[in-house]
Write a structure and sequence with these properties.
The complex is a heterodimer. Chain A is α+β, with helices and mostly antiparallel strands. Helices cover 46% and strands 14% of the residues of chain A. In chain A, α1 (4-20) runs antiparallel to α2 (29-50) and α2 (29-50) packs parallel to α5. A four-stranded antiparallel beta sheet of chain B has the order 1-2-4-3, covered by helices on one side. Chain B contains three helices and four strands. Classes of the chains: A alpha+beta, B alpha+beta. Chain A: Its main location: endoplasmic reticulum.
């Protein structure tokens, strides 16, 4: 069993490495780094989903899948449950974490707010990847109003 | 109850897999970003070093392990306390050099990354990824890092 600190430290290094590669990113530069992190999260989420035992995957409804992410996936990855899950019942879900572990080490308040997106991209991908393996196509974005709380918005893509 | 217990085991397993998978995704990404393997390894070594620096602080804060008095004790703490705490495995310590400044960590079954790098040099002698039966990490003592405490603090 790997200690949670390992993943946290690895994630910090990943963000630093992918950010440092392009010291003077043009208007599109930062976006590329975010996409790379998101892509890595997606692959990891997909692979995690594939390793789940079959009985876990017998979801009847979309909402059950989202509940699984908020409870089981979040506990496995971040050792806590998501704080709230809301939906408009039309394919949009808002998952709120009041104290997101990957943001906790940053000072709370507004000081580092603009640094936050790079610490969320991997997790957005992770959610999208796991959903994809569970048969749900989605778009996932994240927003932060006050550290260390954040919201993930999942919009289901209907075929 | 059994469902609860199952969930617990499941989430522990997932947590371990998350780490391994993330590390894999990182290596894949670096292989795309850098032209040759040497540069990829150099980059991984740098990141591993940075993680090690943070890890030792985390370790000292959480483990209650005091100062090591010699390199043999350091070896014991790394193998029996640190590996156990962070990865749940205990490598065996073998192949001490006659001078007592080098040893090997033998990992039976876990493809590991080179995390621990204090005042020692770590390199892979055998690797399950290269077809060897076990993974062997060779550690060499370089020098003792002296504490530089600010005046008045002990």
């Amino acid at each position: 069993m790997a200690d949670p600190a390992l993943f946290e430290f690895l994630h910090t290094e990943m963000v630093a490495e992918l950010w440092a590669q392009d010291p003077d990113p043009g208007p599109g530069g930062q976006k590329t780094s975010l996409l790379v992190l998101e892509g890595m999260g997606f692959r990891v989420g997909q692979a995690l989903g594939e390793r789940l035992p079959r009985e876990t995957l017998a979801f009847r409804e979309e909402l059950d899948v989202l509940k699984f992410l908020c409870k089981d996936l979040w506990v496995a990855v971040f050792h806590k449950q998501m704080d709230s899950l809301r939906t408009n019942h039309q394919g949009t879900y808002v998952l709120q974490d009041n104290s997101f572990p990957l943001l906790v080490r940053m000072a709370s308040g507004l000081q580092y707010l603009e640094e936050a997106p790079k610490f969320l991209a991997f997790t957005c991908g992770l959610l999208r990847g796991t959903l994809s393996t569970l048969g749900v196509k989605s778009l996932v974005t994240a927003s932060v109003a006050a550290l260390p709380a954040c919201k993930f918005q999942v919009v289901i893509q209907k075929p | 109850m059994s469902r609860q217990a199952n969930r617990g085991t499941e989430s522990k397993k997932m947590s371990s897999e998350l780490f391994t998978l993330t590390y894999g995704a990182l290596v894949t990404q670096l292989c795309k970003d850098y032209e040759n393997d040497e540069d990829v390894n150099k980059q991984l070594d740098k990141m591993g070093y940075n993680i090690g620096v943070r890890l030792i602080e985390d370790f000292l804060a959480r483990s209650n392990v005091g100062r090591c008095h010699d390199f043999r004790e350091t070896a014991d703490v790394i193998a029996k306390v640190a590996f156990k705490m962070y990865l749940g495995i205990t490598p065996s310590i073998t192949n001490w050099s006659p001078a007592g400044d080098e040893f090997s960590l033998i990992l039976e079954n876990n493809p590991l990354v080179d995390f621990v790098q204090m005042a020692v040099e770590a390199k892979f002698v055998q690797d399950t990824l290269k077809g060897d039966g076990v993974t062997e990490i060779r550690m060499r003592f370089i020098r003792r890092i002296e504490d530089n405490l600010p005046a008045g603090e002990e």
